[in-house]
Amino acid sequence: MERKLCNRFEVIVADNGSTDGTLKILKAIKNIRVINVPVKGYGAALHWGIMRARGKYIIFADADLSYPFSNIEKFKSKIGGNPDLVLGSRFKGKIATGGMPFLHRYLGTPLLTFLIRLIYKIPTTDCNSGMRMVKKKFLR
């Protein structure tokens, strides 16, 4: 199964106004699909990218490489359990220097994560992680 799964993926970049030259580079790379998103904002880019994805599961992370894409294997290993959502965790890995503002790292995210764990009984350690896997059917 691992070999089959490894060959069944697509790379989508949902762009809603990048001006740093990234698109020119990406359009030259084979097998990357760039989706133009007419609505500004991070949430809009995620929504459009996920809705245009063809797979049952979508793994996403920020294109600025603040989350190592090598962690995809950890997400793929969860698919057998048929989860609706898998959240990454910067607190279970390594946070790059300057990768998370001080107040977010030591106050905001830990406090919000604690409240979510308490209220919803979800065993997350980082509710704001930008690397996640979601079942497309669940999101719809």
What does this structure look like?
With about 140 residues, the protein is of the alpha+beta class. Helix content is about 35%, strand content about 15%. It has six helices and five strands; from the N terminus they run αβαβαβαβαβα. It has helices at about 1-5, 20-25, 40-50, 70-75, 100-120, 135-140; strands spanning about 10-15, 30-35, 55-60, 85, 130-135. Strands 3-5-4 form a three-stranded antiparallel β-sheet. It has a two-stranded parallel ribbon with strand order 1-2. Strand 1, helix 2 (about 20-25) and strand 2 form a beta-alpha-beta unit. The longest helix has 19 residues, at about 100-120. The two termini are about 25 Å apart. Residues about 1-5 have low confidence and may be disordered.
What structural keywords apply?
140 residues; alpha+beta; 6 helices
The count of β-strands is 5
Overall mean pLDDT = 87
Q: Report strand order across the widest sheet.
A: 3-5-4
Tell me the major beta sheet: 3 strands, antiparallel
* Oligomerization category of the chains in this entry: single chain
Structure annotation, total helices = 6
In helices, the fraction of residues equals 25-40%
| Helix and strand sequence | HEHEHEHEHEH
Strand content: 15-25%
Shape: globular
| Broad structural category | alpha+beta
Poorly predicted runs: 1-5
Query: What is the CA-CA span between the terminal residues?
Result: 27 Å
What would you report as the Rg, rounded to the nearest angstrom?
A: 16 Å
